[in-house]
Amino acid sequence: MFHIEEELKKLPGRPGVYIMHDERDDIIYVGKAISLKNRVRQYFQSSRGKSVKIQQMVERIRRFEYIVTDSELEALVLECNLIKEHHPKYNTMLKDDKSYPFIKVTLGEEFPRVLYSHTMKKDKSKYFGPYTSGSAVKDTIDLIKKLYRLRSCNRNLPRDIGKERPCLYHHIGQCNAPCQGKITKEEYRKSISEALDFLNGNHAPILEALEKKMQEASENMEFESAIEYRDLIRSVNQVAQRQKITHEDGEDKDVLALSVDGMDAVVQVFFIRGGKMIGREHFYLRVAPHDTKAAILNSFIKQYYAGTPFVPRELMLETDIEDHEIVEAWLTQKRGQRVYLHVPKKGTKEKLVELAHENAEIVLQRDRERIKREEGRTIGAVHEIEKLLGIDCAYRMEAFDISNISGFESVGSMIVYEKGKPKRSDYRKFKIKTVQGPDDYASMEEVLSRRFMHGLEERRELDAKGMEYEMGSFSRFPDLILMDGGRGQVNVALRVLEKLGISIAVCGMVKDDYHRTRGLYYNGEEVPIDTHSEAFKLVTRIQDEAHRFAIEYHRNLRSKGQVHSILDDIEGIGPARRKALMRTFKSLEAVRDASLDELAHAPSMNMKSAQQVYEFFHSGKQEKAVEVTEE
Prior knowledge:
This protein is an alpha+beta fold. The chain has five domains: 4-94, 3-Layer(aba) Sandwich (GIY-YIG endonuclease), CATH 3.40.1440; 102-239, no CATH class; 253-374, Nucleotidyltransferase, domain 5 (2-Layer Sandwich); 390-560, Nucleotidyltransferase, domain 5; 566-630, Orthogonal Bundle (DNA polymerase, domain 1). It contains 20 helices and 19 strands. The protein has helices at 4-9, 36-43, 52-60, 72-86, 134-148, 168-171, 185-199, 204-219, 223-239, 293-307, 324-335, 347-389, 440-465, 487-500, 534-562, 575-585, 588-593, 596-600, 607-618, 621-630, and strands at residues 16-21, 27-33, 63-68, 102-105, 114-117, 126-128, 253-261, 264-273, 276-286, 314-317, 340-342, 396-405, 408-418, 421-422, 428-431, 480-483, 505-511, 517-522, 525-528. Strands 12, 13, 14, 15, 16, 17, 18 and 19 form an eight-stranded mixed β-sheet that branches. A five-stranded mixed β-sheet has the order 9-8-7-10-11. It has a three-stranded antiparallel β-sheet with strand order 2-1-3. Strand 17 and strand 18 form a beta hairpin.
């Protein structure tokens, strides 16, 4: 259970991004803050001064999470990336897809230029950014050109050397005029190298030089020059906030770091797609007291990437793992392209790994007790069920239910729980085809037969191709089947499995006179269950979820049946003609009373379709249709 007041007390006074979730756990708002503690608390204080939109958003918040960053600039760019990825409902002001400027160095040219760019492309140029201040970027580019006397013209060099007179920048001492051959390519490249060094973060020499020039100008009473140098120093300091959240290479990466405290560990994964960080996830692990970070990370990578459908081009790790080469080869095979495992030692990548580690530490310290409670509700409850039934594994559980009203539109539902949590992507619906009337046993037999026959067919196809059984498909069989009932429903399931030659544990959820679960039926006997245990609570949640899913499907089918029109029973009259008839004649009575000629001249109609409608209402077919509908 997420207690907002308690979580507010744990917020750090750091820059970062906060993410608001509603009752369905959808992301409804993403924002940035200089201080997460101050900003997030404001939402839950007095509503005075808040806009209607913010008040409505706050009323829907059920939990929040956050990612700390090193600066507000990083928080802003990360906020933009997350909003583009998730499109939160209440971030309407940021849906203009605003872009941020880059500094571009055209290394593909023999005499490179330093340019202002709105986009980052995969070319031979090197990009720095993005930055939030366009004016600061322009000032920095101007500064670099002045300090290193780099060209700003669009001439094609060296082809056009000597063809035109040098520009004004050469005459005022801000360009070494490579267009006139006044500087060699090697000397010019040295200047570019120094400029790249500055853009890579080595600002001390430049700042020292600017400080010296500002002091000299001030001592010489050249105050206008001193002010110019002062403003340039400010611009350099602003741009010096290095941006780690976006990378210029545009590749897909995962950044993995972990924090360990005794037998508890949290692995933090940052997801970078197309060069942009679009989200993160953390994973709680139980570890042995003397496990090394390398061993923990090695185990996590194997487990996590065995179950995820996407493998990025690069994994950036906090520490190297024991099976580096083997794991790299395995991931390469899984992806179908080369995958690299790197442990960054310097620069932006190392700082990004450090940021992931810092977030892992925060999660571990903040959420240790909550995670333990959640683990008890899920994995702990699964282990309790395994112990109660004496089975080795209940990792994946499937529960089935039947819903009908006096046999009308009987439907079946299949819900899936993995590691004690619902896996809604694997839920399935069945419309009963072979059973007439309210026969739950026969309906359940049909549902189970269709589910496992389909699964066997998929397995045969995958086996023939030498492929693993697919996640989210019928080919993945459960470790335990939970039936909504006792002996009768269990026997139905066992009969189906025996017929198909499948061996899966089957357990019934036995209910008392008040339709509440009182125990489990397994191996021909009722197994008592402590009603205060996490196992009992999990079984109850599964039973309620199976009921809800079946009833929801049945309700949808009934709703569709209730909007059925008598015109749908006329051959040749589809949705378009039915709508055209109702728009033209306004009521069924008017359609019935219309002449053949009037029907034929209605929109979308012709003489043949008009004849069918006319005969339907004047040959007794209408009464038969009404009788079928009423039955």
